[in-house]
């Protein structure tokens, strides 16, 4: 199971755990979990527009925080539902960076089966950790 | 749930966690609730309100209101009064949706007059007020004009034909927090929010047509003073905030405070979502100013939505908003930090009030209330679930005990995830229509999350606020039409 919503650690907000063997995979799963809060069927989102992003941060945790916030930003600023088509993460001792190609299209209420708007990524219980099977994240989204 | 063993009953409506409950608590934590409500509180309330009690500069108690439930940083229903000189400001005590708030508007129409045109009204409101994920607004501004708007709040609306002076007079702080400096705002926040003016959003945001039935008037004198004078009078209540702009402001400063909190100011906290900075630090003052910009955006957002609601009612009833008696009762903010004067040791002292999912509720005679509410106390608008109803309350003198603060809604008892598994939005919509409530939504999933059974019993919540002396019941308002994102 690549991600799982959790009703036991948030009532008014949406919490999820995500897992992957790789850090890039974890970011991919966390993006899917975040965007699915807003769009029920993500397969309905056509890759009509491309946005390239580059992020630098001090650690993997804050990098995921910034990455998910970028997706939320484009949803409001340009009404784009974007998903990562390709992610590359470089990790150093005191810094890490991400380059991603995001693809998607403008919100179409007729086709996208819209759910609840995501306002923000919170720091409540936010974590990215290396585990035996790879990587695991816990995220609580304000909706 | 099992209550914490350390929880002590102070009175029938006050429960206290002592300083010894958690390492680092500077003051006890107090939860306002009846025995029934406290037993139903989720564990997050006790964890989070005791975390709030560790914030530097907190005075008297960390509070949680009767509608309290698990949030992030502060619990929902959380209140903290900081000493501005030694205390901190924390975005986690305000929330991402800065100045998410409620507005209540009168009409002189009765339910019998509105019912025949209810579908037309709700359909038109739904078509004219953008709702749902990522919606853009009907007021088109460039980024420079948006800069003026966030400095001026509802005053910008008055200048641009979206408000009356009476609207501003009936809005907390006149619809503008002074000292909002747009230079404290990131380009990203402007880019994210400048095109969302006049949008409702989604989640628990809504615009509702309600009826004040005679049997639901609790305090006829205050109800009349607030404008409820006609049996079965129709009113409009709506709930929304500062949209993506406010969310980005909070995100920007949460990140900044995480960088400086420990490294620059030596503050260590149990929860990173409580990230903070000393109020008088450059970072604290920059956030306070940016937060005010978001507060003003939210006031303006609700004001232009009110303008549109008036247009819709005018079109449907072929009468002017004045002829329809569409006057505001009041506009109250839920998620803000404000400098307020309160009594302390026999004299007035300034406090930095954090309220998150809680409402300012000034008692009679309070400075800052419109003249028409000086005798009654401040109108408090409590949004319930879309199925069960809402309340109009009034602030009380005895509210001083909690810095004149009361609840903000009914409070969730069920997670959104569980609600979506338990209810179907399309069925809920049909069932509600059979019960006389016509709902339009962009999202059946979102509607299911807002089912009445996902919330506490609002009657019990407002009764608790009255028993605790925080606010008194004036009227219960029954929904008949609703638009949701």
Summarize the structure in words.
The complex is a heterodimer of chains A (143) and B (485). Chain A is α+β, with helices and mostly antiparallel strands. Chain A has one domain: Archease, Possible Chaperone, Chain: A, domain 1 (3-Layer(bab) Sandwich), CATH 3.55.10.10. Chain A is built from 2 helices and 8 strands, in the order ββαβαβββββ. In chain A, helix 1 packs parallel to helix 2. The longest helix of chain A is centred in the middle third of the chain and has 18 residues. Chain A is globular, with a radius of gyration of 14 Å. Chain B has 485 residues and is α+β, with helices and mostly antiparallel strands. Helices cover 31% and strands 25% of the residues of chain B. The chains are: A alpha+beta (143), B alpha+beta (485).
Defining traits:
heterodimer; A: 143 residues; alpha+beta; Archease, Possible Chaperone, Chain: A, domain 1; five-stranded antiparallel beta sheet; three-stranded antiparallel beta sheet; 41% strand; B: 485 residues; tRNA-splicing ligase RtcB; eight-stranded mixed beta sheet; seven-stranded mixed beta sheet; 15 helices; 19 strands; globular
Residue share in helix of chain B: 25-40%
CATH class of chain A, anyone?
Alpha Beta
The fourth-level CATH homologous superfamily of chain B is tRNA-splicing ligase RtcB
State the distance separating the first and last CA atoms of chain A: 23 Å
| Total beta strands of chain B | 19
Using the coordinates shown, work out and report the CATH topology of chain B.
Answer: tRNA-splicing ligase RtcB
Q: Main β-sheet of chain B: number of strands, strand sense, barrel status?
A: 8 strands, mixed
**Count of β-strands of chain A:** 8
Which consecutive residue ranges of chain A, at least 5 long each, have pLDDT under 50? none
What is the level-2 CATH architecture name of chain A? 3-Layer(bab) Sandwich
Helix and strand succession of chain A?
EEHEHEEEEE
User: Which whole number gives the mean pLDDT of chain A?
Assistant: 95
Number of helices of chain B: 15
Regions of chain B with pLDDT < 50 over 5+ consecutive residues? none
Q: How many individual helices of chain A?
A: 2
Distance between the termini of chain B: 33 Å
Largest sheet of chain A: 5 strands, antiparallel
Query: How much of the polypeptide of chain B forms β-strand, as a percent range?
Result: 25-35%
Number of domains of chain B: 1
- Proportion of beta-strand residues of chain A: 35-45%
């Amino acid at each position: 199971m690549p991600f799982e919503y959790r009703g036991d650690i948030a009532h008014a907000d949406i919490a999820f755990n995500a897992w992957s063997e790789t850090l890039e995979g974890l970011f991919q799963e966390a993006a899917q979990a975040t965007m699915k809060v807003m769009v029920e069927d993500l397969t309905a989102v056509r890759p009509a527009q491309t946005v390239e992003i580059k992020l630098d941060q001090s650690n993997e945790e804050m990098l995921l925080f910034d990455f998910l916030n970028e997706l939320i930003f484009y949803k409001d600023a340009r009404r784009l539902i974007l998903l990562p088509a390709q992610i590359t993460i470089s990790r150093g001792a005191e810094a890490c960076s991400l380059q991603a190609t995001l693809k998607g299209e403008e919100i179409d209420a007729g086709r996208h089966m819209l759910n609840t708007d995501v306002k923000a990524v919170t720091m409540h219980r936010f974590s990215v950790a290396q585990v035996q099977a790879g990587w695991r994240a816990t995220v609580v989204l304000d909706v | 749930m099992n209550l914490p063993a350390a929880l002590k009953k102070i009175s029938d409506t006050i429960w206290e966690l002592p300083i010894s409950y958690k390492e680092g608590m500077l003051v006890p934590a107090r939860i306002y609730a009846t025995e029934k409500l406290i037993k139903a509180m989720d564990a997050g309330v006790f964890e989070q309100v005791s975390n709030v009690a560790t914030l530097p500069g907190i005075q008297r108690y960390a509070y949680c209101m009767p509608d309290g439930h698990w949030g992030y940083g502060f619990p929902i229903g959380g209140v903290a009064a900081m000493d501005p000189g030694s205390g901190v400001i924390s975005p986690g005590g305000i929330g991402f949706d800065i100045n998410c708030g409620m507005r209540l508007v009168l009409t002189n129409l009765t339910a019998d007059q509105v019912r025949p045109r209810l579908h037309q009204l709700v359909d038109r409101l739904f078509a004219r007020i953008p709702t749902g994920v990522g919606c853009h607004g009907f007021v088109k501004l460039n980024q420079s004009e948006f800069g003026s708007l966030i400095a001026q709040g509802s005053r910008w609306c008055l200048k641009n034909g979206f408000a009356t002076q009476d609207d501003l007079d009936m809005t907390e702080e006149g619809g503008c927090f002074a000292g909002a400096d747009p230079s404290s705002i990131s380009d990203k926040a402007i880019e994210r929010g400048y095109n969302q003016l006049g949008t409702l959003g989604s989640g628990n945001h809504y615009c509702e047509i309600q009826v004040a039935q005679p049997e639901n008037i609790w305090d006829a004198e205050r109800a009349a003073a607030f404008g409820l004078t006609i049996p079965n009078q129709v009113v409009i209540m709506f709930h929304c905030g500062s949209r993506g702009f406010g969310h980005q402001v909070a995100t920007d400063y949460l990140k900044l405070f995480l960088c400086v909190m420990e490294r620059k100011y030596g503050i260590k906290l149990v929860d990173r979502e409580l990230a903070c900075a000393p109020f008088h630090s450059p970072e604290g003052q920059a956030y306070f100013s940016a937060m005010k910009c978001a507060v003003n955006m939210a006031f303006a957002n609700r004001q232009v939505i009110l303008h549109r609601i008036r247009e819709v009612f005018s079109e449907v009833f072929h009468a002017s908003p004045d002829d329809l008696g569409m006057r505001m009762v009041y506009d109250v903010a839920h998620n803000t930090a404000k400098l307020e004067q309160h009594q302390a040791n026999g004299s007035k002292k300034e406090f930095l009030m954090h309220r998150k999912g809680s409402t300012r509720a000034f008692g009679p005679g309070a400075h800052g209330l419109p003249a028409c509410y000086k005798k009654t106390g401040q109108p408090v608008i409590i949004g319930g679930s879309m199925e069960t109803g809402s309340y109009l309350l009034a602030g009380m003198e005895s509210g001083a005990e909690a810095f004149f603060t009361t609840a903000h809604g009914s409070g969730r008892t069920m997670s959104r995830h569980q609600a979506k598994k338990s209810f179907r939005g399309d069925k809920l919509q049909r069932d509600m229509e059979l019960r006389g409530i016509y709902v339009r939504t962009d999202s059946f999933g979102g509607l299911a999350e807002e089912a009445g059974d996902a919330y506490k019993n609002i009657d019990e919540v407002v009764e608790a606020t009255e028993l605790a002396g925080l606010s008194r019941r004036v009227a219960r308002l029954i929904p008949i039409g609703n638009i949701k994102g």
